[in-house]
Amino acid sequence: MISGKFAITLHILTLLTKFPDEYLSSEFIAGSMNLHPVLVRKEIANLKKNNIVESKEGKNGGTKLLKSASNISLDTIFKMTFDTVTLGFSKNTPNPNCPVGKKINENLEDLYENINEKISLQLSGITLENFSNQF
Q: How much is the pTM?
């Protein structure tokens, strides 16, 4: 199912792009989003794991981009936050004797695969720098 992780991650990275020479605190970032800093730190941990940002602790600590925003596609960011997009399946197992029930999940899987291909194609053509320049 779709969550706000992509939007949160993109917000974090856009802020970091706007302040490329500064280490931004999770409190500052969280204030921009009206989120709790713990939720921001969770997404920053994922960005660190994927070598997109670096962090340092202490009074002047925080997080900054490790890579150039021009070298990070929105597709890369999307794939760090989701394996795939799915709009869900029925909680109950459909009736295999029904002409719809026996094929519905297979057809939904094909639909979701197609959606993911289109999302990836669309996002791969947009860099973090392109996106950030809108602000």
A: 0.83
Q: What are the pLDDT digits (tens) for 29-40?
A: 999 999 999 999
Q: How far apart are CA 115 and CA 121, in angstroms?
A: 10
pLDDT at position 132: 94
Rounded to the nearest 5°, which phi and psi values hold at 111?
-60, -45
DSSP 4: S
Q: Which two tokens stand for residue 39?
A: 């939720």
Rama region for 51: left / alpha / beta (φ>0; ψ in -120 to 50; rest): left
Closest by CA to 121, choosing from 79, 86, 70, is 79
Residues in the chain where the model's pLDDT stays below 50: 1
Rounded Cα gap, residues 54 and 47, in angstroms:
8
Q: Which CA distances in Å does 113 have to 18, 66, 126?
A: 34, 32, 21
Structure tokens of 38? Answer: 């713990």
Least Cα distance to 49 among 79, 22, 71, 26 occurs for 79
The answer to whether the beta carbons of residues 80 and 52 sit under 8 Å apart is yes
Burial-class residue 60 by CB neighbours within 10 Å (0-12, 13-18, 19+).
exposed
